[in-house]
Amino acid sequence: MASAAAAEKTALRVRLRRILNEMPTARMQSSDQALFRQLMGLSQIQTARVISLFWGITGLEPDTRALVEQLLALDKTVCLPRIVADHGMELRQYTPGCPMDMNSFGIWEPTLDCPLIAREEIDLVIVPALCYDRRGFRLGYGGGYFDRWLSGYQGVTVGMCRQAVLQDAVPVEGHDKPVQAVVTEEQVLLFPEE
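The structure corresponding to this sequence follows.
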């Protein structure tokens, strides 16, 4: 039986997808640019050597291709998630020209030809989400891939969230963990570890 929080998450996903799908392309693009400026200003980004990012879902997430280019220009090692068997996920290094495939969710991911990056090598993970709240909790897409992968991760976690969908509080379940920082177009929210 689904928990009340799980049911609330499902309803919130529907509402947020509608808001994001109705956002004009020009507004999305200016939002992306502002999000990337905020993100690149974080000291954690400046000091990280190996950064995990995601290839944004068109119409829902920031188009991170420009951000990938910015990070590569700073000589950062960039890795992207790849879905594997048994609802697992791994991270593989991305370089220009790296072969990419579209997975069953319609998300571009590196192929097996791209080098595998171990969890302990990654300094910072930019965690994808439909939205975040003002406490650092995220509303993902319901697959749990990042939740499972992050359960053993010890590095820095950061979220990007459009101001239009930033929530005061998203429903939280026992496995949910907050990120350490959330950036929007207008602000940076920091959550010191307890």
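The longest strand covers residues 77-84.
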